[in-house]
Automatic annotation (TrEMBL):
Belongs to the peptidase M3 family. Residues 253-701 form the Peptidase M3A/M3B catalytic domain. Pfam families: Peptidase_M3. Its cofactor is Zn(2+). Keywords: Hydrolase, Metal-binding, Metalloprotease, Protease, Zinc. One of its GO terms (biological process) is proteolysis. GO terms for molecular function: carboxypeptidase activity; metal ion binding; metalloendopeptidase activity. InterPro entries: M3A_DCP, MetalloPept_cat_dom_sf, Neurolysin/TOP_dom2, Neurolysin/TOP_N, Pept_M3A_M3B, Pept_M3A_M3B_dom. This is Peptidyl-dipeptidase Dcp. It comes from the Bacteria. Signal peptide: none annotated. It comes from Parabacteroides chinchillae. GO terms for cellular component: cytosol.
Amino acid sequence: MKQLIMATGLALVLGACSGKKAEVAETGNPFLTEFTTPFGVPPFEQIKLEHYKPAFLQGMEEQTKEIEAIANNPEKPTFENTVVALDQSGKLLRKVSAVFFGQNSVNTNDEMQALNKELSPLLSKHDDDINLNPALFARVKAVYDNQANLNLDKEQTKLLDEIYKDFVRGGANLDADKQAKLRELNSEISMLQLTFGQNVLKETNAFQLVIDNKDDLSGLPETLIANAASAAKAAGMEGKWLFTLHNPSVMPFLQYADNRALREKIFNGYISRGNNNNANDNKEVVRKLITARLEKARLMGYEDYAAFVLEERMAKNAGNVYKLLNEIWTPALSKAKEELADINAEIKKEGGNFEAQGWDWRYYFEKAKKAKFDLDENQIRPYLKLDNVRDGAFYVANKLYGITFTPIKNIPLPHPEAQAFECKDKDGTYLGVLYFDFFPRESKRPGAWCGTYRSQTYQDGTRLGPVVTIVCNFSQPAAGQPALLSADEAETLFHEFGHGLHNLFKDVHYYGVSGVPRDFVELPSQVMEHWTFEPEVLKVYAKHYQTGEVIPAELIDKLDKSGKYGQGFATTEYLAASLLDMDYHVMKEIPAGLDVMKFESETLGKRGILKQIPSRYRTTYFNHTMGGGYTAGYYSYIWAEVLDADAFEAYKETGDIFNPEVADKFRKYILTPGGIDDAMVMYVNFRGKEPGTGPLLKNRGLK
C-alpha cells in the first residue's frame, strides 16, 4: 500500500511504537521503545547505523503479523476491523523508515547507501506481499462494495476509496503469473531508482575545479572566493580555491567568473553528470528503468507509464499536460530568443567575436540585466541575511495565520548544523516542530525539499503534531560573516516554508488521506513565493547585515522591474525538463539499445530549444523523474503555478496581500484537509472558480 511504505524520500511516521523495554535493554535500539525526547522527535544522537536493519526487519515482521490478523479475522469485514486496522498497521516500520530515509538524504555515507540497497528489495517484497494478499483484498472489497450501508463520513469514505484503489493499482486483480511478474518489476524499478540517485550524488561530489592562480578568480564575489578557499582548505589544499557542482558554488561561478575557459569547464562538468562512461554512468540505468516502467504499465492494462501515473493526478492524462506545456513553450522560447539577443549584444559590446554558448548565458545575462536595470545581484545579497529571510517567512505566516515560531534548545537535531522551532497556532495550541538544515555537504543530496520525521496524526483522540524538516543547499557563510542569500535562494526558502506550513496545518485522522496529488502539492509552496519580494515584506526582513539599514525603496523598485527579466531562460529550461520527462513516459515501445542522450537531443531539438539552454535537468541527473517522486510529473510545478498565480490574485483583488478572510479560506480549504477532497474541489472551494493561465503568463512576463 502506498500509504504504508515509502521506499524513497522521506517516509511518514506514526510516532511512538510498542517496543518492549526488555528488547531495548538487550539491543540498545532506540527504535524499539517510545521516543522520550522533547515533542517526541527522533533521538538522532542515539541512533547508530547498526540500529536500522534490525528495526526494519522487526517492523516488517510486526506488520506482517498485523496483516495476517486482519486477513484471517473470522468476524465480518467492517470499516474498523479491516480498513482502519490496515491504515494503522506498520507503526514500527513507519517509524524507522522516516528516520532512515530522512537521514540518508541529509547525512549519508557509503555504509548507509549500501544498507539502502540491501533493504530496497526487502521493502519492495513486503509492500507487494500486502498489495497482493488475496484474503486481505477480499475483505477490503467486501467493505468497499457495502459502503452504501455504512454511514461513513467524508474522510472515511475517501480512505476506503483510496485503499481499494491502491489494491487495484497494486495488482490485486491480476492473475498469479502477472502478479509474480509485477513483483519482479517493482523490485527492479525500486533498485534502479535507488542506483540512479546514488550515482548522481557520487558524480556531483566527484567533480572539483581547483584554482591556484588568483587572477582566475576575477569577477567572482568575495563571499564565493572565501567559501572556495575554505572548501580547498578542508580538502587539504590550503592556499587554493575549490569549486564544486553544488549549486551555491557552480551557479555563481557561471554567473560571475570572467575566465571563460573555466566557465566552460565547470559547465560541462555540471551537465555531464551521470554521462561520463564510468562506474556512475546512468545512461543504461535510465534505459532499463523506462523499459521496466513501461512493462509495468502494460501489465496493469495501460498503454504507457504516463497513463498509469496521471490517472491519479489533477491532469488526468498526457493530453492535458502537453496542452499546458505547449501553451507556455511558444511565448517562453520567444522571450528566451530576445534574451539571447541581449546576451550576444553584450558580447559584442565587450569586443567578443563569438556567439554565446551555454557557459556564457548566466555571465552575460547578468551584464545585460545590469545594463537594462542598473541592478547587480550582489547589491541585493547584503540585505538577505539568512536568519532575517527565515524570520521574514515567519512574519508572513504570522500575518496570514497568526502562528508563531519559537527556537527550541536542547532538542535532538537531524544534523549538528540544523535549527529547531516550535510552531504554535494563534490560540497558543501546539502545531508541530520545524527543522531547518540550510547548507550543502558531501553527505547531503543536492536540491531543496521538505519532509517529515513524523506526519501529523491522531493518538488516543488527540492531534499529534508533525515533525517537519526543511532542507536546502544555500551558500555557506564566509568566515566571520553571516550567510547571505541570493534572490533565488530567498525565494527557495519561502517555497520550502510553504511546504512546511502545509505539513504543520494538516489535520486528518488517517494516513491514507494525508497526501495530495503530485500536481497539487506544489500549490502551498509556490504561493508562498509571492510574498518574498513584496515591498511590505522586504521592509520587515531585508536589512543590511552590517548597518541594519532597511533595503532602499530604489533597490526594491529595481528588483521589481527586473523580476520578469530572465523568465525566457528560466521557463524554457524548466519546460524542457518537463517535456523530456513526459516524452520518456509516453513511449509505447522502448527500442533495444536506446541511446537516451540521442533521444534527449531529438525530443528537445524538434521543439526548437536553443543550444545555449540545456534542459534544467538532463537525462542522466534528472533525479526528480528517474529517482522517483516526480515520474511523469515534473510538469507539476507549472501546473501548480497556474493555481498559485490565480490564488495570489485572490489576495491582490482585496487590496491586502494579508487579507485575513482569504488567508482563513486558504488554510481551511487548501492547507488543512490533506487529500480528503478532490484537488480541484479544494481549489474551487477556496477560490470559487477554476483557474486560468492568464495570471501565470503575466507573472512570468510572457503575456
